[in-house]
Structures are given as C-alpha cells and as structure tokens.
Design goal:
2 copies of one chain form a homodimer. The first copy, chain A, contains 6 helices and 15 strands. Chain A is α+β, with helices and mostly antiparallel strands and about 270 residues long. The radius of gyration of chain A is 25 Å and the shape is elongated. Chain A binds a DNA duplex (30 and 30 nucleotides) through α5.
DNA sequence: TCCTTAAGTGTATTTGATACATTTTAAATG
DNA sequence: CATTTAAAATGTATCAAATACACTTAAGGA
C-alpha cells in the first residue's frame, strides 16, 4: 500500500487559503488552509518554514520631576551589545500579544494595572540582523512616582528624559517616534494624564505634563478653563504646600465621569 | 570528544534577550538572543516552538455608484466554508508585511499602485480555530471605476455595500469595524478621497464619498467652501454632462499641493 | 511688617463652524 | 421657439470655540 500523497496549489492569496486534496481524489473540503495531511502523523502544519518569532517591544512612558521619560535597558548581548534598547520579549504560543506585552512589563516592574496599547507591527526583513523577527510595539503609561517598583531587572533598566534618550538598537528609534505621536494624539482625545500622574496632583503638574507631551507652552488660564469645562476633575480640600508659599490645590480624576466621557468619545484642543 | 553543550536562562523578558554560553565557559558574548549553538549544525533558532504563522488580511474599500463598498471572498474551505471573509494570505519569510499585503492585493486585482496602510495586529489564541495564526490587518483604498481588474480570483470575490455586508469569519468583522473607524479619521486628516475617486470627479461625487465615509449628510455650500479653502483641487474646463442638464464641472486633485499639505499635517472638520 | 513667589481667576477678540436661499445653465418638452 | 425642469453654482450672517492677555491672592521667609 503506497503512502498517501497530497497536492497543493501554490498561490493562495485570494482568500487566505489554497486547495488541498489527495492526488486524484479532489480537494479535501474539510481541510484547513495551510495544513498538510500525512497518513502517519495526521494533520500537521504546512509552510512551517514561513513561521516566525513574534516579539513585543514596549515603549514605556513615565512622568517624573516635570519631565516625560522612557524606560530603556542596556543590551548585554551581541549584536549591538552595550547599546540601549526597548524592553521586550517574545510572544509564547499559548498567549496573545496583549498578554505577552503585559507579561513582559510585569516581569520588569512587578505591576499589572498599567495602561497599554498596541502601536504598530514592524517586520522589515533585516530589522534584526541576528534572525528574522517581527516585532509588535506596545506603548505603556506609568506613574513613576507611585510605582517605585523593585524588579530585579531594574539593575539594567533606566529612565531617560525623552529629549535626551540615547540612540537605540534596530528600529527602536522609529518605534519611539511613533509612540510619541500616538501619545500626543491620545492626549487630545482623552485625558490620558490619568495614567501618568499620581492619584493627587496639582493643576501645574497636569499642565506641565501636557506641555511635555505636546512639546509646546500652554497658557495657564486657558488650560485650566478648558480642563475644568471637561468636568472630569475633582478639587480636593487638600493643598500641596511644597510647591508654593500659597500652596496649590490637589485634584483627582473623577473616574466615573472620565469613563463616561471616553465612551461618548470627545476631543479637545490645546 | 563530548558534544558541545549550551545553557540558557529561561526568563528573557527584560531586554528581549537571554544569556547564552557554553557550559563552563561563560556566555558567548557575540551570540544572538534566542539562538542556540549546535556543534554540527552551527547556529540555529531557539524557541522555534513559539514561532507562528503571520497572516495579512486586507480590508479593501471601494467607492462605486455613490456607495462605499468592501471586497470580500467566499471561503471555499473548512472551517467556515461558504462564509465570507476578507482577502488574505500568509507572509513569506523573505518579505515584510507591507510586501505581503501588496502581493496579496496584487495577485487578486493585478494592481500595484494602491493606497495601503497597516491597521492592527490580531492575535487571540483561538481566533482561527484551525491553527494558531496571527493576522496583521491592512486597509486599502481603490477606485472601483478606474480599476476594472480582471484577476482570475475575482470569480470568488465580490463587492458589498458596507451597510449590507455579510457576517465574516473569525475576527474579520472586528477588523472591518476598525478599518471603518480609521478611514473616518483619515478622511478628516487628509483628503483621502484622492484614492477612492477616479482621476476626474465632480464636487457632488466628492461630497457623496465623504457623506458615505462619515455617515452623515453634509451641507453642499459648506462642503465646497471648506474643500476649496484647502486648495488642493483643480477645476477643469470639462464638464460631466451626464449628471445634470447644466452639467457639473470636473475636478482633479493637485497632487503636488496635496502632498505638501499631507506633509505639513493638517486637519479639517466636516 | 514687608517682600517674594507661584497660584488663582475672567473677559475681550479672533477665528473657524454652521445655517441658510436664490440664481444659473442647458437639455427636454410641448 | 418658448417653457419647463433638474441639478449645479454661489455668499453671508450667526454662533461657538480658541486664543490672547494682566492683576489679585495667599502664606512663608526675611
């Protein structure tokens, strides 16, 4: 009894599939695209030579000391040993990309409740000279002050002011640039400051944050008026007495109102 | 002579790398992350069990007969045989995602000069019940009228009005929804109509296109005023006499001015 | 008590978005 | 040839939002 043979049609672009069948018996209609049938092994994957490793790289923004910063690690490995790089890792087969990004970040910072968002997928053939890797970039926002994480990995990680960050490996510079653009857009579509500030903050801090993100000076009165009209802030009775002799009122975000606003979808210009 | 052994550190998230070296000899500093050294094979990939197939799926928008449409194919394969699906294919190891998307589209339509843009990467573990596949969605804009493509594959492909499209396989509905949102945003950031209209078009066509994209009626005078003030249109001396007794002037985009505008970055509200 | 420093506050002006109605043209009709 | 008809072309007044702009207030330190 000869072994069972299969045939495949090469070009399979039209609908993500190609015809598969037994020689002389027509296609096997139940057969999944890109599967190969082998009479001993049962179904197995086709085109495994086109499988690739999927990495996630995280652009982690923090706001500290009136500056917008990103978290980088020094690469201790060739190629590009000693150069700075984004925090990253590989997606495991049992998880999706969001989970992979969360895991990578959690392993580093020990924190789980962090704003993350998928940014873009980078796939140039030679982007990683070592091997073919596709990288999905995520950007994350964390409040540096409240999150004094003690992760072991932190020996190798460091916060850099965005304006004074070193050159990065591979296409990581591009990723950062795109993340900054995205952050800028988000800042105008949702009061994203939430994620980057401590629970209680002054108007000044909020404004400085926006000035850093948008990279331009804002008028204090206009800024406050606009933000107040958004109606997502609660002024506390507390004051921060360290910033001025007079002291400055502390605010928190009104999470409920904020969430409602985000759902409604709104934009606001600065 | 015993075989050369290697050791790896398992958790490798902090910087996309892990330590690799010969047992007892410290790590090999020149060795790339996630490579394994084998004395017979030389370098080979590590963690190949976490490699996955990368698909691209294209949301192809067309504008025809005053309607916004998408191009779908009927799936002739299990699972989900007979259901409608986006046009897709797999990325080959020798190409990047943009190239894969272009190839997929070119194979289908025979056309190469098409506006395409990466949308989002979908990676839920069970998104394709057949096997683990990650899909990178692209959205494309083509002018149906000028591009009467004769691709062989077209037997299986069909244009559907966006408002009357069938349910799609996997997470393709989600992809379409996201693409529509992106298209809407683009329409307000760049005069994207360019891509969806024939070379020469009437103001009415342009307005109808925008009405379809934004899904709301627009005032004719305001629309024309705003678009004229953008200064990217050239009014030709020709008229389209089929649309009205009076005839309607034909316009083209001023590609140069348009490109300059896009570079400057501008937004305009409708 | 006075000085200093940053916080806090309101209005006038400009700019852009919206609402809205009549005239024009050429083909079709009688 | 005069009249009808259907859609194209056009401009202004109003309203809303963005911007520009300067003085007063509070509390700590000298």
């Amino acid at each position: 009894m000869g072994s069972l043979q299969i045939f495949l049609r090469e070009s399979a672009d039209a609908g993500s599939f190609c015809y598969i069948g037994r020689k002389g018996h027509g296609r096997l209609p139940w057969c999944h695209p890109y599967l190969v049938y082998d009479h001993r092994m049962g179904l197995k994957y086709y085109k495994s030579e086109d499988k690739v490793l999927l990495a996630v790289d995280c652009i982690i923004f923090g706001f500290d000391n009136g500056e917008l910063k990103i978290l980088l690690v020094r690469r201790n490995m060739e190629p590009e040993m000693g150069k700075w790089s984004l925090i990253g890792g590989f997606m495991k087969k049992a998880e999706d990309l969001d989970q992979a990004a969360t895991r990578v970040l959690q392993n580093l910072t020990g924190l789980g409740d962090i704003y993350m968002e998928q940014l873009y997928t980078y796939s140039k053939v030679d982007r990683d000279p070592g091997q073919r890797t596709i990288s999905v970039a995520y950007f994350a926002l964390i409040d540096v002050a409240s999150h004094q994480f003690e992760g072991v990995q932190l020996e190798t990680a460091r916060w850099f002011p965005l304006s004074d960050a070193p050159d990065l490996i591979f296409d990581h510079n591009k990723m950062v640039a795109k993340a900054v653009a995205r952050l800028r857009r988000r800042a105008l579509t949702m009061p994203i400051g939430f994620e980057l500030l401590p629970d209680k903050f002054t108007m000044r801090q909020l404004q400085t944050l926006y000035e850093c993100i948008l990279d331009k000076e804002l008028d204090k009165r206009n800024f406050i008026n606009k933000f107040k009209s958004l109606d997502v802030l609660i002024r506390l009775d507390e004051k921060d007495m360290t910033v001025a002799r007079k002291g400055a009122y502390l605010y928190t975000f009104d999470k409920d109102k904020y969430d409602r606003k985000v759902e409604e979808g709104f934009s606001f210009k600065l």
